[in-house]
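Quarterly update from the structural biology core.
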Amino acid sequence: MTVSDTGPGAGQDTRTDTEAAAEAEAQSVEVGSAVMDRDDVDRALARLGAEHEAVETSLLALQDHAGRRLLEGAALTGTTKDRWTAADADITRLWTYFDAYSGALTAAREVRERRRWPNREDLIELTERLRGPGVLIAGAAAEGVALAERLSLAELVARMNGLYARSLDVVVAADAVWSALPARIDLLAAELHRTRSLAHSVGVRPGEHPSGDDLEDITAELAELRTQVIADPLAFWLPAAGSSAPGGGRPDTGRYDRAALALEDVRREVEAVLDVRQDAEQRLIALRDVLSRADRTLAEARTARGEVLAKIAASEVPAVSGPPTVLQEQLAAAAEHRRQARWHRLSPLLESLEERAGEELRRARESLTAVTAPLAVRAELRGRLDAYKAKVARHGLAEDPLLIERYDAARRMLWSAPCDLRAAEQAVLRYQQATAESLLAPQDRPEQRHQEQRPDGPGEEDA
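Predicted structure, tokenized:
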């Protein structure tokens, strides 16, 4: 780095006053602005000094940044390698610019310290140093930039600001990803290890259960994800839209989140298998009970069907199927799975058996109801016949010959075997009709008709 010192040193000016004035005039023209007075110079030096301290503080903070130290020591790949190579060169160039800036500021301060009240020559030189392109940068070659160039202090600060923001963006983004993702991946990997141990204890293994295969996939994904995050953190960085601040954005956790959700699904599946292990015996007992009740109901239906066929004539009685042997075989398989601690196979089998056993019990009950329907009809007709007989007795019609005749006819049909339900139902309806007619015509009751027909003397009936 070379800092241009265009002004003469103290005690070394051997030029005549005329020559010095002429050179100062030429320099003033080069500056292209009015010569600064003493107050302007002092204010500019104070401002530049404050900027110098701020730049130095920022550069030292960047130098000590944990993200930068990690980037320097990491075996980088991909996007991060390319961007860090450029950022590292920018940081080196930053220090070169800062050294040039420091030298130029020091030289300007030395000129100002020559005299308490600087003369015109001093002010012209200070104006050139503080405002003009008086800083020579050598060896800072870059694409499109000359090997040596002159910059003003303001231009130098602008250059440093741009390089600093670009470098800091790389450092902060990489540090943010490294601070967020590897630790979360490690925690998820620890949870994965616990889940795998638990899954293995209940038989959820790769090649034997889908969740075991999922665990293998998640394990491989987390290992690959961690390797990529460490080697190429900037590939997992999402810049904030519209933000120009260094480090504006957030880590991309998409792959991590998908792995976490997949592990949660597997964990729930393993917990379901664990629940099976804990209550398998009770569930098997309940299943045996349900299937036993279904068998007993079907046996009752078969017995009832024989009874119906013997007691009811001219009636269609549905056939009764036998107990399903498949369910019994599956129940035996479930019991064997429990004995062999094959919980991952027992879990889905129990769920299927519970559903099918419930359906089997409902089917058996429906079959019994369908088979015994004719008996229920006969019982209803018997009950209706007896109810009307009691009603007839309450109204004093128990001795009515017509009612007695129709009641006896209906009763013979209902209490004979086999019973013709259709004929019996018609007989009951005739008895009901005769009863209704008798109740509507009380004058036609037998005792009333007997009194109306009896003469003063002995009648035909008395004879």
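Confidence is low (pLDDT under 50) at residues 1-32, 448-463.
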